[in-house]
Design brief:
Elements: E1 2-4, E2 9-11, E3 20-27, H1 30-42, E4 47-52, H2 61-69, E5 76-81, H3 87-96, E6 100-105, H4 110-120, H5 127-136, E7 140-142, H6 145-157, H7 173-183
Parallel strand pairs: 3-4, 3-5, 5-6, 6-7
Antiparallel strand pairs: 1-2, 1-4
Length: 191
Amino acid sequence: GFIDTAVPCNCTFLPDHFAPGPVSVISQSGGVGMALLAALKDQRCGIAKWVGIGNEAVIDAVGVLRLLAEDPATRVIAVCFEGLRDLPGFLRAAKTVNQTHRSIEDGKGAAGMRAAASHTGTMAQSSAVMTGLVEQFGLIEARSCRECAVMLKALSISPPPQGNRIAILTNTAGPSILAADQLEPAGAALP
């Protein structure tokens, strides 16, 4: 399937309207991709493009990533995959693209890897290996569609960080403590 909100064009099985916005999504699984769209809609975050690549028989993640990198409407790119045919090529391309990327990888456990192989015909990569590669290539991995949508919205409305310093503003202490606990291990410098 394919969605382009600038045209507007919705060639998916979702009879929904999506508000235009700066987020584009590449998804291997139509179901996961649609769940991410629903989560983005819940966050009131519009999309520029959504491209379903399935088993990459016709189009592949590397080509779509390069296309979206040239799209003036796309500021942030999310990639949902089980196992890409050209993972090294994708990672090289992702490192050269200016947009911020978020990824959701499914098929992490043994049963999930077997299901991924039967779903798209690709072998899901090891969770530990993928986490290491995601970090090495400057990507960020999301654990759920909701988490990914929250990150995508934040990135779509914020300028890129200029360093590792960060301030946390909350109306009570508890949420700031939780945020500090998450940010410090990621290398954020807190006052």
